Amino acid sequence: MKTALYTTLTLAIASLAIGGCSNLERSRDLGNPQVQGKTLAMQVCSNCHSVDGNSINPNFPKLAGQQEDYLVAQLTYFRSHNRSDPEGSEYMWGIARKLTDEQIKGLATYFSQQKDAPNVTGDPALVAEGKALFENGNPKEEVAACAGCHGAQGMGNGTFPRLAGQHKDYMIKQLHILSQTDQRPAGAMMKPLVHGLTPSDMIAVTTYLQGISPQ
Ligand code: HEC
Ligand code: HEC
Fold first, then answer.
1. Atom number, ligand 1, closest to the C-alpha of residue 47
2. For the segment 191-204, what is each residue's pLDDT rounded down to a tens digit?
3. Which of its termini does the chain have fewer beta carbons within 10 Å around, N or C?
4. Each residue of 77-123: pLDDT tens digit?
5. Ligand 2 centroid vs 186 CA: distance in angstroms?
6. CA distances from 90 to 86, 158, 211 (A)
């Protein structure tokens, strides 16, 4: 009798342990430090940014192939409320609130390793104009070349974000935020140079960037 009870208990505990384990692998619990970053990426972030980071809706920035250091920095800024642009705070503060440094690293590694999906290029005249601005800046307006920080093909570098393939509407929104507010302190170096961009410069440069195909 005693042995039977013992066996039942052992089985129950074993199945709990197994259940707990597979739940961790499918968990959406943003408050559980045991859940791996990759799991959260696939179970939670995917709802808006897509499972491979190639979001369709331009309200949600693409994360596929983004610089790992940049992703770590932004998630840390959302967690500490250092980045406070309206949609960043509305959507990302709650999500980042309890992430551990290790989960942030796992999320950043996962999305930085995803492949950027092929992109459709825009109007050729606009693309040419935007490419020239990106590569050379506009000395008359004291606009430094974007490529100097964001890389020759817009692939980014460390905490300088990748812009190649990013949604145009998202980038235009961020250019306004970076030029008119202090909601992204780490982007303070962008402020003076974005001031020199006209609205049509912004459209041209982001049309070029959105259409850069994966390499
Ligand atoms: C409910 C939708 C939603 C979910 C879920 C979500 N995000 Fe976001 N995320 C957004 C929005 C909207 C923005 C853009 C905010 C803005 O315009 O500043 C954003 C911005 C970001 C950025 C900044 C990108 C850049 O180019 O600067 C990163 C990084 C990010 N999210 C990572 C994540 C990760 C990692 C997860 C999962 C743990 C996640 N997001 C889950 C909606 C979401
Ligand atoms: C001196 C370096 C530097 C130059 C030059 C520069 N940027 Fe940036 N840019 C940054 C940094 C740093 C950030 C990230 C700010 C942050 O972490 O919040 C950024 C962010 C951005 C973003 C937001 C990306 C995102 O995913 O949220 C866009 C869009 C952008 N830059 C476009 C441009 C364009 C267009 C030019 C040229 C007209 C340019 N940048 C020139 C440093 C630079």
1. 5
2. 998 989 999 999 99
3. N
4. 999 999 999 999 999 999 999 999 999 999 999 999 999 998 989 99
5. 10
6. 6, 26, 28
